Predict the structure.
Amino acid sequence: MVRRTIVALPGDGIGAIVLEQALRVLNAAGFDAEYVYGDIGWGFWRKEGNPLPDRTLDLIKKHKIALFGAITSKPNEEAKAELDPSLQGKGFSYSSPIVGLRQHFDLDICVRPCKSYKGNPLNFVRRGRGNTIEEPLVNVVIFRQNTECLYSGVEWTNPPENVYNALLSHPKFRANFGKVPVDELSVSVRIFTKKATMRILEAAFDYAKKYGYESVTVCEKPNVVRETSGLMWKLAKEIQKNRFQDIKLLNTNIDAQMMWLTKNPEDYGVIVAGNMFGDIASDGFAGLIGGLGFACSAQFSADGIAVFEPTHGSAPKYAGYEVPIVNPIAMIESACMMLDYIGEKKLCNVIRKAISDVIEEGRVRTYDMMKMQGKPEVIQNGAASTVQMTDAIIEKLKK
Ligand code: NAI
Ligand code: MG
């Protein structure tokens, strides 16, 4: 086995807690790696006026692979007020280091698997025929374009004259908004490029082929958002026809998908969408498999940078508990995605099997799995702590 160097980015709050647990599991599974720690998050904003220091970017650039916990992010005004007094009033401006990472490395492909574990009490159930209860197992992987769409930040309130004139040149704008005073206008632009759209579609098809999924579903709204959603649908048809005829190509609208996901989630395999609809669809499906304690993700760039992280944030209110209670599985699953990515398939499967065994056995459950309110008392009330859940997974690895 080649010894890997992995950049560990603990971040803030529970991010640091769950990352540590994931590293324990990786070590226990025999993954031979060196971890170099990168600075990111609120503490560095306050101390240095930069939540994503250049030295961290250099580390990631050098080693290419990062395991990331989570960070705390706040609006700019609040952020400025929390800066170290020596830095206040010196022109520092806050922006989210997650967005920063994404933009700096052009992490345009985001992958969010949503797979239910047997025996997870948080699994989605529905009523079947004759009043039976069905528990469809979900096995969906969402490919979300990560850098464009409505989240590209190209937006204005009271747009400048040249922008306003460009808008006026569109007959629909003129007809429907032409009489609105310009200072009462807010405009956010939904941008899709052919290159990035091709990349996310190809990644989705490649994945479907590699992992044996029958279908790729484009989840957009091409009947209404004709240019951008339309582009994705058109390119998807071309790619499928030229390279992936053995994989079914399906088309759902995001609104309908939100309905279908609780009616027949088992019918979906790989789903691909633009940034915003991918964000929505992945949260929707994550809800079916246990929510934030289970939702893992990976982000990739064209030039080989990969960042693996749970979908959840830093959950600051839990960060100070003497005994941490949050579920480490989303972070450990993200580490499994990393193992899979670097070709450590066997280790990845061994860890996933250990998680699956712990969940199916049902003896060790974190508070979220017991549907408790997150409070320190959950431990006295029978919930496993973050560390106990990790211990249980490690225990299974030894078997
Ligand atoms: P959050 O994901 O941190 O927490 C929301 C709630 O989800 C928690 O109160 C808790 O009930 C539950 N939860 C989260 N992780 C859990 C886990 N591992 N096990 C069990 N329950 C869990 O989102 P919130 O509260 O909106 O944001 C807190 C901070 O995190 C904010 O500063 C926000 O900007 C940041 N954030 C960072 C993200 C990242 O680093 N990728 C993503 C989302 C939010
Ligand atoms: Mg989200």
Residues 279, 283 surround magnesium ion (ligand 2) (CB under 6 Å). The chain has a mean pLDDT of 96. The chain has three domains: 1-114+294-399, 124-154+190-288, 155-188. Residues 194-210 form the longest helix (17 residues).
